[in-house]
Protein 1
Amino acid sequence: MASDGKRKKRGRKSKTQTTLDPTTSTINDEVFSVNNVEIVNSTTPTSAKKHENRCGRPKKRPKHSPEKPEKPPPLINGEIGVAPPVEGVTRVVPAMDAVVKVFCVHTEPNLSLPWQRKRQYSSSSSGFVIGGRRVLTNAHSVEHYTQVKLKKRGSDTKYLATVLAIGTECDIALLTVNDDEFWEGVSPVEFGELPSLQDAVTVVGYPIGGDTISVTSGVVSRIEILSYAHGSTELLGLQIDAAINSGNSGGPAFNDKGECVGIAFQSLKHEDAENIGYVIPTPVIKHFIQDYEKNGAYTGFPFLGIEWQKMENPDMRVAMGMKSDQKGVRIRRIDPTAPESEVLQPSDIILSFDGVDIANDGTVPFRHGERIGFSYLISQKYTGDNAMIKVLRNSKTLEFDIKLSTHRRLIPPHVKGKPPSYYIIAGFVFTTVSVPYLRSEYGKEYEFEAPVKLLDKLLHSMPQSPDEQIVVVSQVLVADINIGYEDIVNTQVVAFNGKPVKNLKSLANMVENFDDEFLKFDLEYDQVLSLSLSLSLSHTHTHTHTHTQRVFGSIVVLRTKTAKEATVDILTTHGIPSAISDDLKP
């Protein structure tokens, strides 16, 4: 008997039920490699069982022969075929030969020094083949492209690709390959319907961490209007819990039937979030493809040029003359350049769009048990389409047939691959403001670092004319002619010689054609810049080399023959050196 008075009980152990976590792999989990479909059983080693300490009677061994190992699924054209049925559902593993790797060489413009480009760099991403000898990928995968090449799975050849269209807002790009060899043995991907919540999805692509194809799986977690980071717009999107890493961009997301239900394009990186990825759904993809097929080019998604507020407060609804059975949203402001500004007015209550009633919170019925923002209805239209809008104005119901168009912002969120516009006179570098320009000047935290005046225009200002731009003095290239102006940086130009500056082209034209004694630029904060015509070219430091031209001691242009490299000429305006981008030349 033990000294502590406790008896050691002997006999059989109590039977306990084991519960498997659905998020963990099962005991007979099988891993298939991409190349040779090698099966690796993750079973517990038998050596561990020999040293297990057993008490009581040993378990009876079955008299029948042990179970034979499960045979792997059959191979069909080198691909894993139909998986074994689970609860009556047959899951088809998609044909991954249609997924390609995209190699791109980028040459971004230097927005801070707009007369030159940055050093080129390379990237890799994913894409997939669709009908019509075309390939889909993400727009940010080929942004500012110089060269794009595609490589098929299992191939060692890279094929030169041609970019047919880039949809910046929806972050989709359309490519093709002229070489017939590329299309041999490749079947295009078929598109499926918009999935439901908890539907299984499989993301296929070429992310970081290896060179071969990668497959991750998850379920649809959310379906709503999402913010597209690259396009700075809001469109329908899917949230999934499958891992989407760098390099997965442009890869397809398949459902259980092997149909493509979306394109992986971004993920949420946050310390409080894990495995949150986003997929461009098929309605957005089909809109992009049909837009290209209809117009021969990408024209964009239409938007209503309005700002609206919710009408959830009952007193607010009574004050606006709404009846108890009426719902809608109130128009705060209207873009003066939008077509709807001719018929809609501030304080109008939008009751319905194309016959679909809008709730007080701005949502419309989507599917059973789901609601979505009414901007989804607008995004289903095409540029130039008409829409019927019912509004409440002064307690009267009115209907208007409005022609939809793309929305233009005063400070554009992207440059769409175009080189920046600029104008240089007497060392003053004038350019236009865009979100990429702010990011170039102030980094990723430009929303906190940029001048308040520019941020206010970015968030709240609307253009008063279709060609209005925010023109700023980007920097001052130091010279004798501009002594005392060296500290002026990113300050808006309001007027030139008393005339308002509408855009950069109008400023360049006024400077080229002025006949006063002084060049006078009116800046914000009541600053003034004045230059005398008596200071001619001889008063400035100008030095010319065979391949390099210098103005005011700063390199303005390095002449090269690189693809897409703009050629800049040093001009003389009223005896003062100047330079102008190609798009502003008469």
Note: DSSP finds eight helices and 36 strands in the chain.
Protein 2
Amino acid sequence: MQKQVLESSEERTFQYQDLLPSLPVPPLDESLSKYLDSVKPFLNQEEYQRTEDIVKKFKNGIGKELHEKLLERAKSRRNWLEDWWLNVAYLDLRISTQIHCNIGGPSPCVEHCWPPKEGTQIERACINTWHTLKFWDLLRKEKVPVERSLDEVLDMNQFRMIFCTCKIPGVTRDSISHYFKTEAEGECPSHLVVLCRGRVFAFDAIHEGNMLTPPEIFRQLTHIQKTCHSEPDGPGLAALTSSERTKWAELREYLINLDPKNSTLLEKIQRSLFAICLDDSSPHATPENYTEVVSRLTLGGDPTVRWGDKSYSSIFFSNGIFSAFCDHSPFDAMALISMSHYTEKNILENEGKWKGSNTVRDIPWPEELVFTVDQKIINEIGYAKEVYYKKVSDLQLVHYAFTSFGKALIKKQKFHPDTFVQLAIQLAYYKCHGRPGCCYETAMTRRFYHGRTETIRSCTMEAVEWCKSMLDPSESTYQRLQLMYQAFAKHNKMRSSCENGKGFDRHLLGLLLIAQEQGLPVPELYMDNAFTVSGGGGNFVLSTSLTGYTRFNGGAVPMVEHGYGFFYSIRDDRIVTNCSSWKSCPETDAEVLCRTVYQCLQDMIQLTIAAQL
């Protein structure tokens, strides 16, 4: 750890930003060849022949032309994808993004210093908030250590988006308002917003140049809680953020026209560091089962105490369990996990206690943000809550720990832990559904300037051949193992390729967007059934992601109605998984898939052990 301390004092968080390489555009023939390879598991010989012809035509015709235009675009931008991705993946969506895009996960503090205990909500909230503010302060001073992957510096831009950031609904496209600044760049908003029982409050986290201490934050939060618990509930305006986007944009305009003061209050929420949500529910949680916390918090929670557009919110439940809830558009999960890991480490080092001074300065009381509302808004809030609860009641979500083994044993058997889990997911889907499942795994492209993600298509021909061998009783252990090694090699090669800017999904998206910008017809490649059945255009039935090797794991909902979300963190002794599906789809069942994955993990490790005997 000595090294990290040294690094953080010498290196500045954002000092390498200008030295990062630009996001490359891969060669067209390479991308198309990889694409063809990825559609094989889903097509018969005749269909594949047809797709091969379409791809060939695309490569020698319109595709070549679009690729040239994409190369032109890349010349004048350090990241040719950045604006496009933000719009297409997030800001153009018109569905409820709070339900369909937000990410969230529980704090693992229940596993060590903070087991569930009634009456600890405010006490833990103020300590956790203080550590989060310390991270904000380190970021302002550029003392958060620069992250690396195998000695290569990673882009740190996403960390700027955690604080003072909010999505603003638009009639056809949303936007992101962002007010964070480092100390060198200037002033940065320093107030927090608190949501409690349908009401919204704000207070400054800095008083006379010094950050509020946990006892001072405790005074503020206790005041808010007492006020809310002794008076009627507020209107619950925050529920509107869970609406379909165009609807929320129109209602927001209506609110501003109703009273210009509403505009000032909305801006106060937008500019705030982050939101603290005091939730009255008391979810059950154990180190092996976080299901209730996650289903209640990631999505199913009270929409009147969640401002769904804030980039970062901390939700504190009445029994002292807490979790993170984030708008996904400005950053990906790893930035959040790095910050959460920092706060957890500090909470743990101090045994969950505040060991500093208990002196409370004479600080201004929190101010309530009282919106002017009329009957129309009250009705709309009621309607938004109704729609929200109907949708989230359809969500099936399980969050369990597989405790038979973890990273230590997998690595001892000389396998990549992430690939190990990915192949278990493939085998489980095949077992449950009797066919291959097109799968999206997130690869990180942060080696490049403002890089975010690329798609690893985990369902390869090699994986499918191996799955078939595992389900065929006549196959020998030796043959199964050989096929497993081939599937591993393929996946590891794809991961490396994607992380180095040589994936093909974002490239194909770029070519399609160039065509759209030029007003050209959609090329046949994208209209072909092979494109959709292999997951293209956001049609992956398995939406998966490794959330790292720490104690943090969270999740999001499936990408499609008949799909699954599957998110996992891999620790030395366990694999914690978050699996979701929609109850209204008769063929998917998150509980069944999750249990089947666990069985497949056992089968795989047994296979590797048997081979050594």
Note: The first strand starts at residue 103 and ends at 106.
Protein 3
Amino acid sequence: MACSSIAVDGRALPISLYSPPKRQRPPDSSVSRNSGSNFNFRLHFRVRVQFLSGSSVHVLLNGSRGRNQLWKVRSDVKSESYEISKSAPESFKFKEKLGVDVISKDDDGDEFVDNAVPWWEEFPKRWTIVILCFSAFLLCNMDRVNMSIAILPMSSEYHWNSTTVGLIQSSFFWGYLLTQIAGGIWADTVGGKRVLAFGVIWWSVATVLTPVAAKLGLPFLLIVRAFMGIGEGVAMPAMNNLLSKWVPVAERSRSLALVYSGMYLGSVTGLAFSPFLIHSYGWPSVFFSFGSLGTVWTALWLNKAYSSPLEDPELRPEEKKLIFHNRVIEEPVKTIPWRAILSKPPVWALITCHFCHNWGTFILLTWMPTYYNQVLGFNLTESGLFCVLPWLTMAFSANLGGWIADTLVSKGMSVTTVRKVMQSIGFLGPAFFLSQLSHVNSPAMAVLCMACSQGSDAFSQSGLYSNHQDIAPRYSGVLLGLSNTAGVLAGVFGTAATGYILQHGSWDDVFEVAIGLYLVGTVIWNLFSTGEKIID
């Protein structure tokens, strides 16, 4: 059936299934106007036809001239019932051709608007991907920071000194280091969906096995923690690959800020719930409960996610058009142009600054509860709860910085300038507030300095962490793997060095090293970084 019609005041209004509705004149009885006046009228209507004998069709007619006048015309449509065969063409879809806002009647005769598509199906698919990545990073840091709390009763039970604790904390980074570049290559060639699913499953299993390994002995614990790092190591390159394909440039900073705030809220969740679980059920319960959550996420991810908008059969055309606006649909990556990547000064600026940034970040991530316990005199529960404040500040600041950065870009400021401003805040803010820790006399002020340090650090999500997609969108996974390898080396050396420094020095020495690296990073970033695409 190629055409149907609706009778209005004895005239037939044709409805074609294969072409948009034509402009029609409304029935005279429904409109009062002065004779001889010019009357321009445009008929918009959305209709759903049910092929049942005696059905009613309600048509919404919206007048022009800004009068917002509404005509509602009712007509009986009678036809014989029939079935549409499976061979009916794809174009035989009323919803796609005519729209779906329809006035229907319930059993009592009351009218209501029937929307054929539920709101959750109209939710932008790119933001579904972003939210799922956010939740993966939430789990990522929950499973990572639980050791920073559990290490206190574990070191007491197994009689570990500060050097051994530093070795255990850094063993995570051994595996994390191995999969940075490999994860980026894998994500850019086979797709971020599979890589991120692998990572979550892998680190969740390693988390559950941690108490078993600890009871078997220190070497087994070191191996399991390194295995956990292998799984978490592919997460950031895979996420970066996914967002480079799904998120348009105008939404890049805020989407990355939201995903990385998942890490911060994961730290909040882990630090808040770990003391409760340890006191109630013992330290092994932290690893068992947190690790099991990965299975729930994996089921949702495999059902909802796709590596690219081109692979999603349910992606709406208007969203696809938005994603690919001013972008060329690129072929999948088959080879990595290593020479081109490694010959660019902005790439080396990104790698160096990632190292400088992560030295301070990972020290605070792994050693903050110990600092609160040993220096500020907080007990286990207080250490966990006070550690929450800096991470909450980071979650807020990351999203604030993302919105500011995207707003500046949309108002015409160059991406290069925005990246430099945001990263300068991300370096100089922590350097200033860490320098104040040696001058404060109260625990409350120390916690405040930590919170402000971490809060300003979070502006880096709109600085260097957004820069991979700016300068090399096709190879963003590989590029993040390269720079994050340097960041992981900072975590390995920084976490282990902190344990050594504390045995031979003080916390002031620990903070001075971090401050120096923040200042070096500020200079290098402002001299050599760019927000322009430099690698095709």
Note: The chain has 19 helices and six strands.
Protein 4
Amino acid sequence: MTMSGLISNRNFGSFVGSGNVYRSGRDISVQRGGVSICGVSVAQDPFSRWQHKMHLPLEERIRKPMQKSHYKGEHFSLVSRQSSPCLNFRLQASGINGCSFVSSAPYRSNNVEQREEHGLGLSRRKHAQPAVAKANKFRVNYKSEEYNISETKIDPLQSTEGTGEAILLEGNLQQVSPWWQQFPKRWVIVLLCFSAFLLCNMDRVNMSIAILPMSQEYNWNSATVGLIQSSFFWGYLLTQIVGGIWADKIGGKLVLGFGVIWWSIATVLTPIAAKLGLPFLLIMRAFMGIGEGVAMPAMNNILSKWIPVSERSRSLALVYSGMYLGSVTGLAFSPVLIQKFGWPSVFYSFGSLGSIWFVLWLSKAYSSPKEDPDLGVEEKKLILGGNVSKEPVTVIPWKLILSKAPVWALIISHFCHNWGTFILLTWMPTYYNQVLKFNLTESGLFCVLPWLTMAIFANIGGWIADTLVSKGLSITSVRKIMQSVGFLGPAFFLTQLSHVRTPAMAVLCMACSQGSDAFSQSGLYSNHQDIGPRYAGVLLGLSNTAGVLAGVFGTAATGYILQRGSWDDVFKVAVVLYIIGTLVWNIFSTGEKVLD
């Protein structure tokens, strides 16, 4: 006889004959179409008979003759091992107490074969059809063979093993877990990365609000304020490529965890550094940039290993939307905290959130699926796609990487994209104030709108891109379509700003420009994992270095243009770069793997 599950004479659940559950005693016989408990048939009205018989002494119940099924010559009996050693079940699944089984299929057999087992005479009927057993929270599949126990004396007080445990031979045990345990592990990684990027921009933008009361307290002029704001990029530029190398060599978990805890500590120490003096504050802001500089390459590395290509766009879009929502959260809560508790409270409260994230990250995250011991077989198969996950790289093939045209397409396109994006995000409050004549409060309020728009449209673009891939469109075509929208959309809406006559239409054009810009998350920002998944961290470090330089130079160039020209000239330069980026991307980019 073979089963799957665990049956114990001490903690046995219940046998079910016709879809009903009955509490069982220590000794049970199962017949076709029903259950025989201690020799009493309970196929028709089992519960009342069982209650009656269970009051009898154990020895008397054991000696009762076993009831036969009304199907001629066919019956099945199951007797606890504490009652008899004649049935020997071997365990494959353990730790299951109180199971409930259903005997739902009749047994049809022939070709009776005699054999001796444990010194007892057993008449075994072969070719028995399987019966299905089900249990509360467990699904058990087994085949049962019928035994006719005849001329067998049973000592109910002896057990060959002494444990009284009935053990099963073989089977397939499937445990039904709660929904939160069935949540895909790869999306747990995505949500943790989303949270990290939420904290990243919360800690970055809080200085733009806190710098106002800080400059009043320490008597900083505009030049000093600009120096403090730019000091962040000193460290940020330093660790873009280095962070990618670290992530590709030692894994994204360690590098991203290091980055978050590093910039969180730097954020908490910012008020102390400001009180010590300006040089200490500049160093602390640079330290914060070092921590945030490794975040994007490390995230790109870990998602390249965890996310299948069919879900790549939407996962990256969700993570990057965390940055946008982090800006919204930081801009919304910083003024409230400053007003109630003073400007240092912003840095203490925001920075302390990183420690909570770090604890969750250490307990839940792994650099790759093969390192996660709790990852299900089916999900691992989906992630790996039937391929063996390769080891982290030991040497970065710089010559090979820089010789590929798609890599340069990424670098150039990232530069063109960030030039326009940083201009809009950095100079937008000034544009609202000088051109649209909004006051500072209204300017700050409308500055939140582009971040919200980008968060929404980034996720919409991600779902569209993954849907196109699932419909059979090539990855190359999808990346080119999405990035073309990310370039040409902002270019179109920026050209319309010179024609609008109302502030409402101007704000709408700016919002639409940023919304279409967010489609880039499913274009160039997803392409690093397409062309070189093993070097995704290094590739993002390279392209994002160009993107950060575009932000630094573009912001400075905009101020120079405004001294000698107008806002139309600023937008024209951005539109030209958007068009250049579109051409380079559509000519040289690809969605196929070019680095292995």
Note: The chain has a mean pLDDT of 76.
